[in-house]
Amino acid sequence: MKLSKGAGYALHALMYMVRHITQLPLTVSHVAKAEGIPAGYLSRLFQTLSKAGLIRALKGRHHGYVFAKSPEKITLLEIFETIEGRTLFGECLLKHCNCGGTPNNCRIFKQWQESTQQITDLFSEITLTSAAWTHPEHRFEALPESPPSKP
Question: Do residues 12 and 19 lie in contact, with contact meaning Cβ atoms separated by under 8 Å?
Fold first, then answer.
């Protein structure tokens, strides 16, 4: 299981919002610049997070994003599944073999389910607030818009 870059960006953007909660609302461009995330990409992620009811946009003079749900009630599992658009471990590791196996008749599938359940449980226990205050702050290294020209 590999999470998308978008899941990492979303988590870091939301952790930034937790660390700067007294400054909310924050704009996409502010968070993107602070975290080194492409603003257009972050805007699409924020739309997804907003549709899921985790954050919401404020319009008007004090525009930007705020939490729609307490960050102490938002879990890593909820963030990751929202961005990935699916449950993280719902299928067999060997889902492409068409064996028709179930946890009852396939030892590999059974072990996969047991192992991934532990990860799912862990991600459902870690809140956004606890992640924000225990994860080291850092920026993503923004990629240059175009390759540097030759001298």
Answer: no
Neighbours of 151 (CB within 10 A): 3
Of 118, 49, 115, 37, which is closest to residue 78 (Cα–Cα)?
49
Arithmetic mean of pLDDT over the chain: 90
Structural domains in the chain, CATH included, are 5-134 (1.10.10.10)
Task: Tell me whether residue 146 is exposed, middle or buried, using C-beta atoms within 10 angstroms of its C-beta: 0 to 12, 13 to 18, 19 or more.
Answer: exposed
Tell me the C-alpha distance between 47 and 51, whole Å.
Answer: 6
How far apart are the C-alpha atoms of 134 and 127, rounded to whole Å? 11
| Cα–Cα distance measured from residue 21 to residue 139, given in angstroms and rounded to the nearest whole number | 18
145 CB-near residues (< 8 Å, 6+ apart):
none
Tokens of 70: 């307490």
pLDDT in tens, 49-98: 999 999 999 999 999 999 999 999 999 999 999 999 999 987 777 777 77
- CA–CA dist 104, 98 (Å, integer): 16
Please state, in angstroms and rounded to a whole number, the distance separating the CA atoms of residues 4 and 35: 17
pTM of the model: 0.86
